[in-house]
Amino acid sequence: MLFLTRESIQSCAEVWKDADVELPQFDYEQVAENTRVRPEWVHFGAGNIFRGFVANAHQKLLELGKADTGIIAATSSDYELIDKIYKPHDHLTLLVLMNASGEFTKKVISSITEAIMANKNRAEDYCRLVEIFENPSLQMASFTITEKGYTLTGPDGMYLDIVKKDMEQGPEQPSHSMSVIASLAYRRYLKGQYPMTFVSMDNCSHNGDMLKNSVITIAKAWAAKGVVEQGFVAYLEDESRITFPLSMIDKITPRPSEVVRNALQEQGIGGMDILITSRNAHTAPFVNAEVSEYLVIEDKFTNGRPLLEEAGIIFTDRETVNRVETMKVTTCLNPLHTALAVTGCLLGYTQISDEMQDQTLRTLVERIGYKEGLPVVVDPIILRPQQFLDEVLQERLANPFIPDTPQRIATDTSQKVGIRYGETIKSYVQRENLHPAELTAIPLAIAAWCRYLIGVDDEGNSFELSPDPLMESLQAHLQGVTLGDSTSNVHRILDNEKIFGVPLYEIGLGSKIESYFYEMLKGPGAVRRTLEKHLNEVLG
């Protein structure tokens, strides 16, 4: 039985190759020593997308001889990821790329040379982090910590208690992830005001600006209390020294799959057990992921950077990054995901790929993308929107080996519909030859979301709604609504311009969506009947 360790991939290399596993082709020991002495890249957020995408890209550079240092992985919260996944496997990851055809491509990722806790309670680890940030060689810190990791305030707009405490205590005892980063940046400032770049690679809008604002907000609070110099704030705001580029990332790296684990076991690869951490993160020594991947980064670095363009990463200007993100989020991927999420929950699906076998749902998302989205798509030039959309619809969403669920994607939908649908609707308002009232699939998706909020599926059975910060207020408008009702306060939801970004009733869409909603409410099977009826009408 093979086990994922450095000793195993060295002493049993032929056996690994017989199992069709590609092994790293560079001098790891030399790279690890180089990284120890002159670290260039530290990454915060040591989860699946980092291991399955970012670390793999850097490994390509190492194997091409385009880099000679590795990545240092850090996490400020989930110690089990470090102690139970990284360390027992010598920081290695078994990457399993899953084609829609069912073929698995397996590769050992070895570009991570250290894995440490960014936490004061791990004194040795934290001292190493300080040492890294005080080293002039450090080029960048990157992040995949999810959007919540950058958030300093709660839904009420007030600072979180942990943030208030950090602001009071200063840089010596940071707890919140942004306070930790500000504290480490302060140590670099004190050591020599060395330049470096902070790169958010999280899947959220204007991620670099979000990171910058949070770190500088913490720094300003400390400066106001007199616990750091005003010069530290100036250092963070000086773009000749510190930058926070924008980026757009796109790759599905879902929870580890039991199917993949069992397949690896059958091939003689052991120790691939799936771990659910105390923070409810699902992880394993392997990462299963789709083949498709995109990472576009604003080329704004102050102390050098890895030559990641050699590994397929795109570096471009700020406006182009924005346009790529807009293309993806408002037209070519995210609107389709949201439509499949809410309709999938209503129609009893638990896998996105299964929904793509449902001709009605496939027609819904094809119409949202091709017919209603592409006429107003923002074209980034460096990627072709229709080609991107083709790949999403024909390969990515339909891939049965990507265990992604509508229930996961339905999370926080109230925070998404304004971008995913509102921006396209705005474009229809602004174009002389297009009219919002002509839209059909997007209004159906919005109506399905309102119908979803009742928490009753298309067969009349209750189901658990995914978390949403506005859930309580949204459900209050629909309290007591049952199948067969023809009145409700759903107009209070649809009339909320803060949610949708546009006045739906003023532009002629509110009443249309409301009528779809009541059709979906008529009784068991009404959701499917409504979708079929109106999609068939537009197909003519």
Automatic annotation (TrEMBL):
InterPro entries: 6-PGluconate_DH-like_C_sf, 6PGD_dom2, Mannitol_DH/Oxidoreductase, Mannitol_DH_C, Mannitol_DH_N, NAD(P)-bd_dom_sf. It catalyses: D-mannitol 1-phosphate + NAD(+) = beta-D-fructose 6-phosphate + NADH + H(+). The keyword Oxidoreductase applies. Residues 42-309 form the Mannitol dehydrogenase N-terminal domain. It holds the Pfam family Mannitol_dh_C. It comes from Paenibacillus odorifer. SUPFAM superfamilies: 6-phosphogluconate dehydrogenase C-terminal domain-like, NAD(P)-binding Rossmann-fold domains. This is Mannitol dehydrogenase. Residues 324-503 form the Mannitol dehydrogenase C-terminal domain. It comes from the Bacteria. PANTHER family: MANNITOL DEHYDROGENASE 2-RELATED (PTHR43362:SF1), MANNITOL DEHYDROGENASE DSF1-RELATED (PTHR43362). Keywords: Oxidoreductase.
